[in-house]
Design brief:
By secondary structure, the protein is α+β, with helices and mostly antiparallel strands. It has one helix and five strands; from the N terminus they run E-E-E-E-E-H. A five-stranded antiparallel sheet has the order 3-2-1-4-5, covered by helices on one side.
């Protein structure tokens, strides 16, 4: 199963944003995000940013993912 993952936007260039996840930078398409800004937390699925989320929610989701990985 694939899930959208919270990622923080580090830069925006036209229709694309760059996000960091697991220490790597990824390019995502931003057509579904209104007025994307550096510092925004987004949910990304593959190479598509699907929504913007509050930083508190992003941090909680990342913590839950980390806990799930450490329990295996």
């Amino acid at each position: 199963m694939c899930l959208a993952t919270p990622m923080k936007m580090t830069r925006v260039e036209g229709d694309y944003g760059y996000v960091v996840h697991g220490g790597k930078e990824y390019k995502v398409e931003l057509s579904l995000i209104d007025d994307p800004q550096v510092g925004d937390w987004i949910l990304a699925h593959g190479e598509l940013a699907v929504s913007r989320i509050p930083s508190k929610d992003a941090e909680e989701i990342l913590q839950l993912i980390s806990q799930a990985h450490s329990s295996h």
